[in-house]
Amino acid sequence: MLLEVESLNLWYGEKHILKDVSFGIDAGEVLCIVGESGSGKSSILASIMGLLPKYAKVSGSVKFKGKEILGLAESEYRKLRGRYISTVFQEPSAYLDPLFKIGTQIEEAYIAHFGKKGAKQKSLQALKDAGIEDAERVYRLYPHHLSGGMKQRVCIAIATVCDPEVVLADEPTTALDVSVQEKILALFRRLRERGKAVIIVTHDFGVVAEVADRVIVLKDGQVVEQKDVFSIFDYPDHPYTKELLSAL
């Protein structure tokens, strides 16, 4: 198993956010974590990446290639983030820096791990891999020149420029229109075809139907159901899963 989460518990102060969450994912697989807002989905990704607030308390295990990464020193997390495990954040407009050109921001992610040599070429290729045909033009633009869908593609380019093995995506299609959503989801399918492990957090079972191999249903910080994508649609067991599906 490429990434294994075992008995993950998380507290924000006295509030118990995640309760004994366990799952694993292998290369060439897309796992979707589904649940309503506030169920703890994004907190799972933050726990994996070591991006929790200082007041958080966490226990359990997160292993990447058999090595424990939960609770690493910040210097060790920096070696891991972007290079081996990367994140596509929910709101690209908040993530991209308005003061820097797109090319600079992608290069920064690459240079942090590999140095300046070849950074531009790798950045342009990352843009092309993210579905941006006129990569040279976009490379020279600022974020405010781009549409929401294009910004999300740029964020995917930043997340994949170092060719990580695991890509985490937090509500990657939120606020995008249907045609743009489909293009973004196609990018994640291509990542799977390239042998990447992809974890997508979503509240949308339409997204699940498009890309998932397996599904985790999360309610109030607990995994209430975990199945392959066909079984979750055809034979849901938990009443909460059935409720979510009925909302389609």
Automatic annotation (TrEMBL):
CDD domains: ABC_NikE_OppD_transporters. SUPFAM superfamilies: P-loop containing nucleoside triphosphate hydrolases (SSF52540). It is a peripheral membrane protein. Coiled coil: none annotated. Residues 3-245 form the ABC transporter domain. The keyword Aminoacyl-tRNA synthetase does not apply. This is ABC transporter.
